[in-house]
Sequence to fold (74 residues):
Amino acid sequence: MERALIREYKDLVEEISGALSTENHEVAVALASLPERIRGFGHVKQRNVEAVSAEREALLARFRALATGVEHAA
Fold:
């Protein structure tokens, strides 16, 4: 599980760095700091991974919308 999490985080950082702007900076920081909340072992860690994963998807959607300017148009 750790290797998959590391790979996922690396991919996330690459995406963030490629589309970072003043408009999406705050969301980028929130995304980059999500792994700090993944703690514990076994089922405790898995529960934290699941909670962070749901939040990650929501933040990533917002980041992408801000990066493309879609959120401003709404």
